[in-house]
């Protein structure tokens, strides 16, 4: 039996998956790209329009700002949570982990509908603000509402890379710093934080990147006047039927996303973090 | 400061978890879980709007969900598409995972990365590209179109769970099986599959949920004759203001919670079994 034969037959079971992916995803994406640069001659006009139409850049900027806000919020909530996960017993850790994954696996429509109820005019959030004397707080139809709802579902992507990084830090280093007379705060910032930066970087990149492509949440909770890039893309496709322009915008979003993910993947095992979120199977390094 | 005081009182806790961190963790847990639970009281509302709190109790929304053909058809469509997707994605994904576990080198790593792309590619970009192509191929609004598109995005989930299960798989078993005269296919069915069945099952469940819950691509592929439940839910918020969505949401939350907890329990039991081994 030649080793060559093993090599080629070994690849055979991969063919259906790759063929399916090519047919459903790569060919349509390729065709979209070709359409976006042909008119029918080669042209970059569709891409130039993105910069000059006055709308696309504003929307892209707003999308980046929203994604950045979500990222900061997720970091502020996710870091202490991930830290707590490394400090509790295995049973409590298991519960905290399942809880993290619940929003990700809860029905997208149910989750967004719940946020509509909560944030709407006359809803529970408004009532709660009335109690403390703040009136007419309507988050429904605003980017603040969109940000809150997005943070909830993006948190797992922050917590899981952080959990795996924080869990691998030797706590004796902290105790050593304390023993040498530093305060808990100083010990944290000088010893623990620098060691956790890889996880922070991976989580930040991941949350920011995934936040760029949100469609359902801004479409349902935001306002058309404050639309994000996904809404613009949908609008150009289904309402304006301008497939070439939509394709150009789609390509820009896709390339930004893939470049950021590839970079994040270099910084810290992001794709494995995605796998964890996808299936809830963390590789514990504790 | 507090930790120092505690250290003196209880010498066991040298490095305690501060109380405020536990409180903070509790708040984050609430942020994860509580918002979605609002759909449950809503589903028993007697109102015809999304008014909260509900003005009165009624089973009307559930009644409407289970009698209105629009909702029932969309539910049936979702079940059909998700079942076929789970079947196809699990077959294709398992084959790919098994192949990748036996290959190494740059090409194999690249193939794995390519197969994971649907999980990171923004669903709106995928939806737009798929929509434009499927229009030309007359696949929009067809069961086949939905199943193909959903399978492409479900394969990574199968790949990850089966790869996880293969992590503890001893490749020498296949050599043993081959030396005893089994064909590669027979070896797979009789040796590999039983050992990674949990990963395959988990992958199938995830593929089913991914498809059943998928809304962005479904919004683009819908036709007046064929739409899935998430699309009907989307319509009921954007076009119709139909509070039946709260009954549908509650059922989805219930179903996904049960389905999601199931693999966790399976894994828990298997984990214990492993621990018990000497």
From TrEMBL, chain A:
Query: Subcellular location, in the record's words?
Result: Cell membrane
InterPro entries linked: MetI-like, MetI-like_sf
* Biological processes per GO annotation: transmembrane transport
| TM region(s), chain numbering | 60-82, 94-118, 138-163, 199-222, 243-264
Q: How does it sit in the membrane?
A: Multi-pass membrane protein
**Tree of life domain:** Bacteria
Q: Which GO terms describe its cellular component?
A: plasma membrane
- Pfam families (UniProt xref): BPD_transp_1
UniProt keyword terms in alphabetical order: Cell membrane, Membrane, Transmembrane, Transmembrane helix, Transport
- The keyword Membrane is assigned to this record: yes
Is this entry keyworded Transport?
yes
Q: Which residues form the ABC transmembrane type-1 domain?
A: 60-262
Where does this protein chiefly localize? membrane
PANTHER family given in the database record:
ABC TRANSPORTER PERMEASE PROTEIN, INNER MEMBRANE ABC TRANSPORTER PERMEASE PROTEIN YDCU-RELATED-RELATED
Family indicated by similarity: Belongs to the binding-protein-dependent transport system permease family. CysTW subfamily.
> Which protein, by its recorded name, is this?
Putative spermidine/putrescine transport system permease protein
Automatic annotation (TrEMBL), chain B:
Please give, as recorded in its UniProt entry, the membrane topology of this protein. Answer: Multi-pass membrane protein
Tell me the compartments it is located in.
Answer: Cell inner membrane; Cell membrane
Mind telling me which InterPro entries this protein's record contains? MetI-like, MetI-like_sf
SUPFAM superfamilies per record = MetI-like
Instruction: Say yes or no: keyword Transmembrane present.
Output: yes
Q: Name one GO cellular component term.
A: plasma membrane
One GO process term, biological-process aspect: transmembrane transport
Q: Does the keyword Secreted apply?
A: no
Q: Which residues form the ABC transmembrane type-1 domain?
A: 75-263
So which residues are the signal peptide here?
none
Transmembrane parts of this sequence: 20-44, 79-101, 113-134, 146-169, 200-225, 245-266
PANTHER family in UniProt? INNER MEMBRANE ABC TRANSPORTER PERMEASE PROTEIN YDCV
Q: This protein is called what?
A: Putative spermidine/putrescine transport system permease protein
- The organism named in the record is Umezawaea tangerina
């Amino acid at each position: 039996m030649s080793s060559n034969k093993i090599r080629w037959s070994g690849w055979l079971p991969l063919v259906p998956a790759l063929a399916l992916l090519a047919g459903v995803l790569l060919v349509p994406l390729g065709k979209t790209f070709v359409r976006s640069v042909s008119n029918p001659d080669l042209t970059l006009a569709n891409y130039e329009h993105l910069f000059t139409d006055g709308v696309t850049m504003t929307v892209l900027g707003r999308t980046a700002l929203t994604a950045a806000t979500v990222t900061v919020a997720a970091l502020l909530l996710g870091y202490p949570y991930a830290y707590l996960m490394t400090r509790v017993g295995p049973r409590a850790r298991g519960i905290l982990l399942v809880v993290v994954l619940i929003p990700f696996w809860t029905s997208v429509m149910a989750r967004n509908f719940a946020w509509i109820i909560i944030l709407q005019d006359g809803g529970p959030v408004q009532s709660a603000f009335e109690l403390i004397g703040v009136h007419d707080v309507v988050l429904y139809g605003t980017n603040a509402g969109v940000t809150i709802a997005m943070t909830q579902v993006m948190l797992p992507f922050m917590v899981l890379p952080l959990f795996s990084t924080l869990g691998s830090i030797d706590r004796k280093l902290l105790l050593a710093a304390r023993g040498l007379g530093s305060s808990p705060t100083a010990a944290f910032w000088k010893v623990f934080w620098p060691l956790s930066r890889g996880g922070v970087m991976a989580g930040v990149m991941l949350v920011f990147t995934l936040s760029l492509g949100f469609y359902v949440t801004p479409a349902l909770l935001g306002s058309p006047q404050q639309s994000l890039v996904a809404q613009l893309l949908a609008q150009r496709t289904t309402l304006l039927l301008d497939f070439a322009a939509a394709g150009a915008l789609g390509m820009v979003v896709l390339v930004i996303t893939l470049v950021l993910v590839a970079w994040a993947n270099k910084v810290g095992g992001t794709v494995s973090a995605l796998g964890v979120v996808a299936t809830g199977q963390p590789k514990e390094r504790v | 400061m507090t930790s120092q005081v505690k250290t003196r009182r209880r010498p066991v806790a040298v490095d305690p978890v501060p109380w405020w961190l536990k409180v903070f963790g509790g708040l984050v847990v609430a942020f994860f879980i509580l918002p979605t639970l609002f759909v449950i009281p809503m589903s028993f509302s007697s109102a015809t709007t999304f008014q909260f709190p509900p003005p009165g109790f009624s089973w009307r929304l559930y009644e409407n969900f289970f009698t209105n053909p629009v909702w029932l058809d969309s539910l049936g469509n979702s079940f059909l598409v998700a079942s076929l997707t789970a079947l196809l994605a699990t077959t294709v994904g398992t084959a790919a995972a098994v192949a990748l576990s036996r290959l190494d080198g740059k090409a194999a790593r690249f193939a794995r990365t390519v197969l994971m792309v649907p999980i990171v590619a923004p669903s709106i970009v995928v939806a737009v590209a798929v929509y434009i192509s499927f229009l030309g191929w007359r696949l929009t609004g067809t069961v086949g179109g939905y199943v193909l598109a959903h399978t492409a995005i479900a394969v990574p989930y199968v790949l990850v769970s089966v790869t996880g299960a293969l992590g503890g798989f001893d490749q020498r078993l296949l050599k043993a099986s081959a030396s005893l005269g089994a064909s590669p296919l027979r070896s797979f069915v009789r040796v590999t599959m039983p050992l990674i069945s949990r990963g395959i099952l988990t992958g199938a469940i995830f593929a089913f949920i991914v498809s059943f819950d998928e809304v962005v691509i479904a919004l683009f592929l819908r036709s007046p004759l064929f739409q899935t439940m998430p699309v009907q839910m989307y319509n009921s918020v954007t076009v119709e203001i139909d509070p039946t969505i709260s009954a549908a949401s509650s059922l989805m939350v219930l179903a996904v919670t049960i389905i999601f907890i199931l693999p966790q329990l399976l894994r828990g039991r298997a984990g214990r079994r492993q621990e018990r081994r000497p």
